[in-house]
Amino acid sequence: MVNFITIDDLKNKKRALIFFAFIGALNFIIMTIIAMFFYPRPYNFFFDHFSSLGFLDANWSSQFFGGISRPYLPNPVSPILFVIALIIAGVAMIPLWIFLPSQFKECKLARILSWLGSGAGLISSPFLMLVGVPADYNIMLHGIGAMYFFLFFAIAIIIYVGAILLNKEYPNGYAIFGIIVGVVAIAYVFIPFSILNAFHQKVTVYLFIAWAMVQVFQVWPNLEK
To answer: Which end of the chain has the least Cβ crowding within 10 Å, N or C?
Structure first.
């Protein structure tokens, strides 16, 4: 897609919106990496969750989860970057969910499944943005946002696996990839992985992003110029 994108392509509203979906996913990766560098203590990629970037107090998790009392450690920059990344990603995914069913016109069942999948995907977007509420400010809202974002995004992908298998235009490899992403995501939601939980979260998020980007590449050539 990127190799042949032109200004004229972006003048088309559908292509501009689907390109925004690609940029939103890429932006999340970039902004969260930058937020890690601004984190007031060393950010451990394998043991710190994405949510840690949004803490107002960088030591809050030690006290809440580990019972270790530590002095308040202000985290002024990372939460701002984290919230911006979440909002952009949440909004950017909406065009993808809207346009993706256009790839499933030939088979009625595939078309129905695609709309059901997109419905679950659309529901996931506001929950993704809700994750931006700092856990140390309101852990209930933050937790609800995180749990239901992962759940509904995973459901969307799993439903789309069925639609893809029914669509002869889609390579079966897309369905296999969807199954892998869905299983990893559902496992993250329902099976605790103790100290590996934060790393499992990152694997899940990056697989979500990869899945979304793959769909953008699939949808892009078929949108009206």
So the answer is: C
